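Form P-L/3: holo structure prediction, ligand calcium ion.
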Amino acid sequence: MGTSRNRSILEPKARSLCVRAGLCAGLALLAAGQQPAAEPPAAQVTDARIDRIDEEEPGAWLAYGRGYRQHRFSPLTQVNRDTVEDLGLVWMRRLDVRHRLQSSPIVVDGVIYYTDSWSVVSAVDADTGETIWTFDPETRRRYARWSCCGGPINRGVAVYKGRVYTATFDARLVAIDAATGQQVWDVDTADYPSRVPYTISGAPLAAAGKVFIGNSGSEWDHRGYVTAYDAETGEKEWRFFTVPGDPSKPFEHPELELAAETWNGEWWKLGGGGTVWNSITYDSDLHTVYVGVGNGTPWSREIRSPGGGDNLFLSSIVALHPDTGRMKWYYQTTPGDNWDYTATQDIVLADLVVDGIERKVVMQAPKNGFFYVLDRRDGELLRAYPYGAMNWATHVDMETGRPVENPDAVWEEKPQWMLPGNIGSHNWEPMAFDARSGLMYIPTHDVAFFFALPEDYAETGVYSPRERTMNLGVASGRYRAKLIEEAPPRPESKGFLKAFDPLTGETVWKVRNKSAQIGGVLATAGGLVFQGDGSGTFSAYDSDTGELLWDFDSYGSIIAPPVTYRIGNTQYVAVIVGAAFAYYDTGKMLVFSLGGDAELPVPPERDRAIPEQPAMSASVEELDQGGKLYHQFCASCHGYSARGYRNADLRIMSRAIHDSFQDVVRGGLLVDLGMDSFAEDLDETETELIRQYIISRANIDREAAETR
Ligand code: CA
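OUTPUT (holo model):
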């Protein structure tokens, strides 16, 4: 830990590593083997300081969503509608990973703190990009296999009272001294039994003297919870479970009694789901923490909770007392979740005049396609307009507060493409709110998912859970492919940036992204909205009209939200870019300012043609078995039908990997890259059948490409 790495190839002028006087003195003493004297320590971020960010620190970005209210709106105006054409790259830093990158940097006192996908934290001079320290929490790489969606993820740190907090993909919460980069404490947040290990992808929230963190992976049979730790000591203060546990045991807290009445069957055996994997928001006006709760496990509600029920607190916003963890109120966006419709999307706080009454509101665009405005004192529903394409429901009944499901879209009876799909109309990519105009800038996508019951369950009415693999409770493999062939075609996938009025439901403008994979959003008082997308384009739009004013090719894939900050007289815009499959490249952080003229090196293009494959020896039956095993153990990272996912396309793996396939799959040869050993799951013969299946898939796709 504390090693300097990832030096930028554009790292410009030499500059002192310590940008603050107190920090320099402390480092000098440390180098001399002494304890630092009572210097003013770094990053003294307090609740009050975050609350006054707009008035007192317009140039800072102190918390995940900039301030506690999660507006992702900056009052800076140097980069504006008129000047943005001069925006250019000033420096970049490499992140030594090829994964998707979702990290949202924090900028305090001239220092940027950011993470890579293994939760390695870097503190860098926000002006020059020079390394101050790097901290590697040594996340266990084998946990990548327990990812819901193709590899490790981390969304960033919290900075608070001289500490930097990072949550790791192997479910630890680590406190680091902000001045020195040394570890202060490290706690295991997964101290609750589970069928497979818990992971964490979200950024922690630090507020009210505590650090709050949830966990990820409802799909992996988890029971969701959020835990509060003492920010100073790391001591566990309370835990709120989002779904009830085994009814033969006492309720861990009183709210679960209410929740348990809304469940049926033996849901606890597969955890029930409800992970708090992204959104935790602190309300300093009302001293409340709002947590966004995830989907049910399995997805299919008739398998999860036969006999029905709303399944509280799935897909809900839950308001908790930060000191005790007791619930103040909840609002369930999707009762009886049946579509992976999480309410883990970012929760934005504002004061709005609604129907002539001044309200303190919470706003959310959860996966289900409705945009909610609730009174944050009691959870009263004020607005619920659709913001994305949908066929699962027709509207929200404002009397009952419940969505009215579309009787023509019952996928258990008639397998079909559902909109929103499982990734939702909006996912974790944060939206931005301009309180002056009242407009929310939402990254949205219309991406359908084909829902059908699993083949064996459809035939027998009995669901057989599988060990050490996801239990989605929906059709997969060849059976699903056959149903898709018989169904109307899949609706086209599209990504949009929308300027949306939460009170009228009007989309004031929208632009279509180049990719259905869309990035988080930044809005500024300069009249600009910044967003990247999966094509690697980083764009700035006029916030009034949506007119494209500036764009930049990052030669990567941008899903992380950009941030902006000011050092001296210079406004910077920073965004973390993931490596795109099209290039041999790593992740990188790009930092822009007016007049910036650094050149971004163009990475070499990857040859994506499927190479000639080794000889295939398996029979049709064996390939079928190989395919089943592949989909059980490999598809969540390497893609359905071995068509590739993110950066792990097995159809193009080298002969060397083919030759060492057993060592890789069973021997853990590539565990440092996140490829765990599957020796507990697969014997040698099964492993070879998977390889044969990959060869067969590669041959089919190679032939198709040649005849095109
Ligand atoms: Ca999910």
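COMMENT: The chain has twelve helices and 37 strands.
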